[in-house]
Amino acid sequence: MSNDALRHQMTEVLALVSEQMADIAAVQREQAQLTASAEAADGLVAVTVDARGHVIETVVDESYLEEYELEELGGHVTSAAQSAAQLVAQRAAALMVPIDERRRMMPPLSDIVDGAPDLRDLTRSVFGNDDALGVPPGPEDDGRDESAFPTVRS
Hints:
Layout: H1 3-33, E1 35-40, E2 45-50, E3 55-61, H2 64-67, H3 73-105, H4 119-125, E4 151-153
Parallel strand pairs: 3-4
Antiparallel strand pairs: 1-2, 2-3
Helix pairs in contact: 1-3, 1-4
């Protein structure tokens, strides 16, 4: 292969990697804005979580105690929170599907230059942290307001 052809192919691969990284950053911004809600206790308990699965809102209908015992509330909140966290994780994963498919289609750099690293690993490693969503960590404060109580809707 001539140097010009090699240079052209290398430029194309690097452009694809650059585009992929920009798309990953855009998806991460979308993922960070995701929320999901789920209900329990026949809709009397609703919990909303953010992209990291942290509870951001809990709503308990004021008629809850007419049908359920107070001792059951914790279980209903937990159940709704787990369902909402699972839903937000599924939505975040769905956002990554097109990027992951395109990453798999990228040619390995070693096909162009003998012994070169696989640039597909670079885009894969962006999500290789402990956070499955790829959402950047928040500030040291976990954002919870210790004085907050669940909302009781009437």
